[in-house]
Write a structure and sequence with these properties.
Helix content: 25-40%
Number of strands: 9
Structural class: alpha/beta
Distance between the termini: 41 Å
CATH architecture of the largest domain: 3-Layer(aba) Sandwich
CATH topology of the largest domain: Cobalt-precorrin-4 Transmethylase, domain 1
Length: 256
């Protein structure tokens, strides 16, 4: 594993932007405050090294390269490149009264980044604005490691033979979901939508639910995705790609 001093954060920043689907060199240049020539240099270098394709799509080698070089920050929030570039601003939720220039400590709570007045031994930043309790607080000069315990993704599929007992399925799902703490719930397909139409008290994610479940887990919040066995047959490829991208996330697949 490379030492921190050997890691080129700007290089990782560019590669992460590409991995998130950005194909415009001009856009990457603007977002990272780097010259277009500089971004082109990184892109050509990535292509030569087999990290991306000519169409600016990240390869398997590129994904592995990122994970290897980000091992030293694996507990750090990985959803956006600004989290790696300490000179940039980042948004948080303020847990106290904060004034511009104050030092705040950063923690993950229920999947969101919170700022607490005062310094800690883990991650700290500087407030760039005033904020009250529960308000958005922009911070900069991030230092340290934000501790995150990755969540788990559980995929529950409903077999066709059980569709005759919808009420029984609803009761089973309600028991499973009510017995947990904070959780992200996702549904995929018509069967899952039909089941949740008769369940009150739940607000499931309906679109891109599988992707959202992994994003939830990387932020430390467990996720459950519910779908039919029919739909499950078409999603193994998607799950494989997500497991490659989110290597720290454990996934369990079971039938209802």
């Amino acid at each position: 594993m490379p030492k921190t001093k050997d890691i080129n954060l700007k290089e990782i920043a560019v590669l992460l932007k590409i991995s998130h689907g950005e194909k415009s060199i001009a856009a990457i240049s603007r977002e990272l405050s780097t010259t277009i020539q500089g971004i082109r240099y990184y892109v050509q270098d990535f292509i030569k090294r087999g990290l991306i394709t000519e169409n600016l799509e990240i390869t398997k080698n590129g994904v592995e390269f990122m994970h290897k070089n980000l091992a030293w920050v694996k507990d750090f929030l990985m959803s956006d490149i600004d989290e790696l570039y300490s000179g940039s601003k980042w948004e948080t939720i303020s847990d106290g009264k904060v004034f511009r220039g104050d030092i705040v400590s950063l923690i993950m709570k229920d999947g969101y980044l919170h700022a607490i007045p005062g310094k800690s031994d883990d991650a700290n930043a500087i407030a760039t604005m005033d904020a009250g309790v529960g308000e958005t607080l922009m911070v900069s000069n991030l230092e340290g490691i934000i501790r995150i315990k990755p969540g788990r993704v559980t995929v529950l599929y409903i077999t066709e033979d059980r569709l005759k007992n919808i009420d029984e399925i609803r009761a089973s799902i309600k028991d499973k979901l009510s017995a947990t703490g904070k959780i992200t719930i996702g549904i995929i397909g018509e069967t899952a939508r039909t089941i949740f139409t008769g369940l009150s008290g739940f607000e499931p994610i309906e679109y891109s639910a599988m992707e959202a479940s992994f994003e939830s887990a990387i932020r430390g919040v467990n996720a459950v995705v519910i779908l039919s066995e029919f739909r499950m047959n078409y999603l193994y490829g998607t799950i494989s790609k997500l497991k490659l991208k989110y290597k720290d996330i454990k996934i369990e697949i079971a039938s209802l």
